[in-house]
Fold:
Amino acid sequence: MTTTEQQYFALMRAALWQQPVEFDGAPDWKGIMSIARHHTTEVLVADVASRLTGDNAPSDALLREMKASMRANLINQLELKQILTTAITALRDKGIDSVLLKGFSLALLYPNPNLRQFGDIDLFVGLQQFHEACKVLRTLPGGYNWGDEVDSGRHYNIEFGHHPMEVHRVSADIENPKDLAFYATIEQDGLVDNRQTIDFEGFPLPVPSKEFTVFFTFLHAWEHFLITGVGWRQISDLAMCLHTYLHQPTASQTAPFDLDKLRSWITAMHLMEPWQAFGLLMVNYIGLPSSETPFYDPSCTRRAQKLYDRVMAEGNFRRPNRFKYRKPKGRIAKKTHAFVGIFIDFFQLAKVFPKQAFRELNSALKTSFSKNFQKK
Amino acid sequence: MKTKKGFTLRSLGNEHLLVAESLEMTNFNRMISMNESAAMLWKEIDGKDFDAETLTNLLMENYDINRDVAEHDVTTLLKSWKEAGIIED
Structure:
């Protein structure tokens, strides 16, 4: 780990756990903020950095930038909050239940929710209420929809001003049919049967169950890792979920966290090894206590190191294009290109998680063959 | 006097910002930056009836200053809060 990386993590730990910053050497602000942006954590880092004094404080110019990004994030959140509460209220008035995924439901788990960055709203309504919900949301003031919900797979997009809202019929993209069938039972448990309502500055906000929140946050990080690149934002989200639910139960969370349920979900989805590697990252780099990290296994250090290297290299949504050439034209060339992509993904994943790589390869090939077969 | 409804005090870094919560009111002009002592006073009196004396006493309780300085600071602060439209009689 470089000194700059160490300094970045010192700031992240200070932000997540409200602790003083302990720096080793003079801070490399340019490098630190570059990492922070790469992982969509610049507002968290800016909050701590802007409170530093003396030799460790950032320059005035950088401080101005930090203040501007913190304010812009706050404005963004206030706008999203208004859209979210309007949408949930409109759905409620029509008898439609919705559950907020990610966004504010995770931000509210941070010591200062205004520091978690996000740019859209993910609202789960389920299969049965999906079309009715889209109809209601389309009529809201300021909404502009693009695309037809009938043709979308996972969700329907609506834009309110420059803020996108994703209306979900399902909460995750899972290709393997067996996994998908099991995931449907997880959704039923966490998003329907055991969803909870939390207070969001006076507004009753429907959010998933504690166990689903933890599992889904991990699954989301895993999906990022598989497809676009995972950043410390997603990993911090998971750490904040675990800390909130396993360390400091509040009056509204009196029911104990069901670790057996979480274990059964992770195991059934064949994700225990990635879970444990992410666990090590949370403990070793951003300071989640191992006592709050279920199924913690300190022996998976080599895998965790490989995961760490990938996380640092890729960041949130920043995975480099796997091809060094442009997508070819022509049917055969396109199909060859797609197959090569599947195998590149396989070899990349196999370096860190071989078992999961074979499962992903199997699913990707099946899906690919099935698509080609259907087209014929 | 009373604080107006619809404002929330939020802290970002070393800044304390009083923010209008409604979308129509929300832009950079409706974010009022407060220093540490003004933020402390706002937290104490938000949603309650108060007068200059209340603020003066709070300042003296929380900071090592005499009454003259506290009264002077409160007069200046109330003027700026009234101009900003965040309190009402």
User: Anything to note?
Assistant: The mean pLDDT of chain A is 88. The first helix of chain A runs from residue 3 to 17. Strands of chain A lie at 99-101, 121-124, 143-145, 155-160, 163-168, 196-200, 203-207. The radius of gyration of chain A is 21 Å.
